[in-house]
Amino acid sequence: MDTPLQRLEEFFGEDRALIDATLSGLARVVERDDLPTVDEIIRLHLDKKFHFIREAALVGMDLRYESDKEAAFTLPDSKLEKLCAFWLTNGRGEEPDWYEVLAQARPEVVAKVVIQYTERAIKAKLEYVTGIWQLGRSAELAAVANIAIPPLLASFPARASQATPWVAGSASQGRPVEHGEGGTHRPGGA
What we know:
Strand 1 (about 175-180) and strand 2 (about 185) form a beta hairpin. Helix 3 runs parallel beside helix 7 (about 105-125) and helix 4 crosses helix 5. The chain has a two-stranded antiparallel ribbon with strand order 1-2. It has helices at about 5-10, 15-30, 40-45, 55-65, 75-90, 95-105, 105-125, 130-135, 140-155, 165-170; strands spanning about 175-180, 185. Helices cover about 60% and strands about 0% of the residues. It is mainly alpha-helical. It has one domain (about 35-50, about 70-190).
């Protein structure tokens, strides 16, 4: 996969000043005061649309994280939540490193968005819900799973359609959710 720097070098050629200015600007996109709300990001996704700034914000967070891993998470919770929503609604590619680290350091921030996004995606009967598989299988998301799975299972429709049973199965499979050395979580608090 190309890095943002490689893509810019290909696009701008040898213009180092333009490349540096673009990288600097992308890293600051996540600081903007006019980013859409988590609700707007999810609503657009359910309408099969996306906010024009999503890709720039995701690249910007990748750049911030690569540059200074600790400073990347000094953003206010509301901005970190928006970045999580952007990634969940992007639905393609590898889970970014910053997302996994944020999930470990601040699981309540990630879980809040995972719950909002997943509940609405299930209600909208989406065929694919980004991030649900990782809740049951990723040691990095163990703390998020412990927060998110109980309310997700409680909100799951009693009469699920044929398209949605895999969602509950992905999260719990009716057994403890295993997270390597991080322990297990039994759906429903058992």
